[in-house]
Amino acid sequence: MVAPPTHRRAALITGASSGIGKALAHHFAQDGYQLVLAARGVAKMQALADELQKRYKVSVTVIGADLETNDGAAQLHADIKARGIVLSALVNNAGYGAFGEFKDASLTTGLAMMQLNMNTVVVLTKLFMPDLLATRGKILNLASTAAFQPGPYMAVYYATKSFVLSFSEAMASELEDTGVTVTALCPGPTASGFQNKADLGNSALVKGKKLPSSEEVAALGYRAMQRGQRVYIPGLVNWVMAQSMRLTPRNLATKVVKILTRPVA
To answer: For the chain, what is the domain count?
Structure first.
């Protein structure tokens, strides 16, 4: 039997087991949102859920979801609707990258990355759109400063984030008279689990650099979402770099990124 619908504000956060997604969960919970946390790391999410419920007195639902599969996003939608939850916020945070030359990279990994970073964003946005229109809700999509130019050594990842930025800006324009807002959060390199999964330890992009924390990026991104800002780039240096890349000839921009991202000893 399908559970009766709930009328409290509810937010779905994908990739909520660690990093920026985990930090965002605290901000939503602090504001009184009922939460749905979705990722493969159920044990980590359950520990987070227990903490949020105890600290903020909110309801937190944990759903194990493999969003790299073709039907993962649709199954997640079905699981949430079966619980009678109506979303007023959708956070498409799940995603990952891989460092290395494309000719040496695993095709399976690249296709799974595209599925998670792009297809899942589109499917969840489409399937939850009726909820968001009914609640005049908010969408927060995790893009990246990588979205503003091609990225040698992370070619597929940069391309997926360009897609997320373009899709987010187009959706924000289409929805501007509906009360639904769409925000593309475009952080630069951030201290999170992303670097380990992407094997970025030997990239000039992060090696030896002090990076902003997931908590810092999440706090800024959450406020940008609440303002309804379409594109938000945390950090002045990141903002300047992103804007300059938009004005730089494409071949030069690619050379700059290649130098900044190159493997280092």
So the answer is: 1
